Amino acid sequence: MKVLFVDDETDIRELIELAIMTEPDIEPTFAGSGLEALALLESQVFDIMLLDVMMPPPDGLDVLRAARANADQSGATIVMCTARTSAESEEEFRALGADHVLHKPFKPLKLADYLRGLG
Amino acid sequence: MARPDLFPQAEYVSDTRSRLAFRLLMIAVTLVFLTGLVLLSYADYRRTAARAQQQLGHFTELFEQSLTASLAVANLKMWAVIDDISLLPLRYADNIDAYYGRRLRRAVDEIEQIDSLLLMNNDGTVLWSTTEQLVGVDLSDRSYFQKAAILGRDAFTVGMPLTSRATGRRLTPIAWPVISQGGETRGVIASSLGEAYFAELLSLRGIGDGTIVEIVTSDGETAFSSVQGDLPDQEGLMTASRPLPVSDLRIDVSQTRAAVMRSYWERTAAFGTIALILYFTVLMSAIRARAKSVLLAEGLKRSEHDRMQIKAAQREFDAIFENVGDGIVVFDDSGTLHRSNLAARRFLDASEDQTAVRRLRDRIPPLSDIPNDTASFRLHLPGSKGDAGPQAIQCRVTKLNLYGAVIAYCVLEDTSAQERLAETRLSFVTSVNHELRTPLTSLSGALDLLKGRFSDALPPEALKLISMASRNTERLLVLVNDILTLQAIDQQQLSIAREPVNLGQALAEAAATNAGYGVSRNVGIAVDPLPQGDDPVLMLDPVRLQQILANLISNAVKYSPSGGTVRLGLETAGDSVSLYVADTGPGIPFAARERLFDRFTTPIHPREVQASGTGLGLAITRELVQRHGGEITVTSRAQADGVRDSGTTFHVRFNRTDTQEGHA
After folding, report:
1. Which parts pass through the membrane (chain B) (predicted)?
2. Would you call B445 exposed, middle or buried from its count of C-beta atoms within 10 A (0-12, 13-18, 19+)?
């Protein structure tokens, strides 16, 4: 499955890459900024998107909106990845079209299983 | 608060000065009054004395006239007698009685001024007398005889008083010459004015007591005195004198000064007494009036002083009221009271009290709809031109019942700043949270990967160090999570998503979840048998419940001795359902139980016993329990309190009715 990981933190991106590079069924694409992600949304279709919320604009929510506005990506499962924990923000994400919320910090070793669970 | 006396009492000095002036005035008035009294009395004395003197003069004149008139009458009558007995020369005594005896005796009877008669010839020999033993006696040596012998017709003489040779009585001689109508002197006829005569004369005049009448000769011999015996001292007498025209005699009328002035003294005493009584009455009234006026003036001064104090306090209050940071608006229902301060007028964009009250009342319910005591309203006001945008105002209305009227006391507090501050704090915590979690995510992820993927390639010492780093990363994460949870609680943002929770299963899940932590510390976690036939299902937030249990279990594990067991269980009693977590640790000292649930409280245990932690676990646990409507309690037997089989049990109690299925 094609998974888009968007995070402005290089460490996080590398960590994810290290964690899932042993998983052959997961085909990761990485974006280091919102702009990069928006460009990728135009060129590829993803099964799962893992979007970091807090980034310099355009942030994760902008990418979420763009993804939900894009008919090509209508089949994608979108997971918002955030350090925020309040119920209010979760509701906000869901209202914008997010399917799941993944709280940071997550366990990289369990990430692959988590993604498969979504699929 | 003790208010300082802003107006010291220096002005009271003038008071003592005016008191002195008043006393001097009173003394002066008294002196003038007494002087006037004395002068009046003296003038009265003088007048009374003069009048008495005048009266005495009148008396004297009266006496003199009476005496003169009486003597003139006697003189006329005697000359008639003399005419009768002077037809012939007087030669023989026998003949005389025969010729004139009857006539002379009738004369003594008729003429009341005389009481005796003696007839002498020119030689002074008594020819006839009412007193027979005098006949033949030669009286030519007597001065009245010698004076009378040389008198002309119609004249008479009164002689010096003498003592009668015949009777020894005191008498005043009166004598006439016996001159015939032809002018021939034939002898002298004499008589006497006796005391009886004068006394009768006086009594006719109605002379009262105390009046002394004396007939005095020119050489001071007293012919008659109305007083028997000694006269009073000459000094104490008041005397008027008048000479008798017919003789050397003088008439003195005297009155004792005491008698004359008695009426004066009586009058003066009465007048003086009344005047003094009146004067002192007036004086006392004046003094009393003055005392009252002084009191009044003092009262006025004091009230003026108080008024100024009140005014100063009022100004002080007004300044505070006007400039206090919160807005204050006071009004009543009848519209007679409207007062606002500067802040309130700025909030309400009003320039005067009435506008401010009107604008506020437009934004809050009518006074009658506001509950008693205090009610709070949140207002959003456009704000005045100077302010930046709309203002969030907290309006606390307190209804007061004053003197039968309902008064609303409104405090307006600008909460915009507070809200902005809260927002700032929230965004700060959120960003700190993000900034902390992101590196922590990388760190813990990297450590996990290292341990999971490359543990075979690492020496045991390296693995030990990785475990240490991993454990501390976890601890840091717990701290960040705890701080976030507490912040959510404080911001009232902690959501409780209730769903049916089987408590027995929740306990088993908690035991399983935390078993790994127990193993790492060599502490077992066991669930006690559940109550028979009772499998409670309550409406709780399962995630929060696990958080509560995890906190309590991790505490229990931390303090359990190695090889010990933490017991979990469930107790039901009627409506109440309790979960418990019990350990066999050192127990919580009795003195520390009060602050057990406080945030970052001072360590409960001594350094060697105290386990490491964030210091927030129990505070969060209690908040979470309370948000579910539950209650957390602790029972403990502490070694520090001298107990051997120590241990601690936390009870989390819920009410079935509060947390029934279907209860939102």
Report:
1. 20-43, 269-287
2. buried
Q: Where are the alpha helices (DSSP H) in chain A?
A: 10-20, 34-43, 60-69, 87-95, 108-118
Angle at B471 between CA B563 and CA A6, to 5 degrees: 140
Q: Which two tokens stand for residue B645?
A: 């089989």
User: Which of B471, B489, B507 is a domain's end point?
Assistant: B489
| B406 shares its domain with B435 | no
Instruction: Clarify whether residues B279 and B367 are in a common domain.
Output: no
- Could you read off the pLDDT of B545-555 as tens digits, one per residue? 988 999 899 88
Distance from CA of A25 to the nearest CA of B (A): 19
* Tens of pLDDT, residues B261-312: 888 888 889 988 999 999 989 989 988 998 898 888 888 988 988 899 999 9
In a domain, B305, yes or no: no
Last residue of some domain: B413, B428, B454? Answer: B413
Residue B344's closest CA among B321, B328, B320, B363? B328
Q: What does the block give as tokens for B148?
A: 């009378």
Any alpha helices (H) in B324-415, and if so which ranges?
A: 342-347, 353-363
Q: Which strands sit side by side in the sheet containing B250-256, from one edge to the other?
A: B222-225, B211-216, B250-256, B237-243
Query: Which residues in chain A have their CB less than 8 angstroms from residue B450's CB?
Result: none
- Residues 488-507, chain B, touching A (beta carbon < 8 A): 488, 493, 495, 497
Query: Does the ipTM surpass 0.90?
Result: no
Q: Are strands B576-583 and B170-179 parallel, antiparallel or unpaired?
A: unpaired
Pick the CATH number of A2-118 from 3.90.580.10, 3.40.50.2300, 3.40.50.11810, 3.40.50.410: 3.40.50.2300
Domain that holds residue B467: 419-489
**Residues listed for chain A:** 119
Residue B444 touches partner A, C-beta closer than 8 Å: yes
Residue B626 within a domain: yes
In-domain check, residue B81: yes
Q: What is the CA B332 to chain-centroid distance, rounded?
A: 36
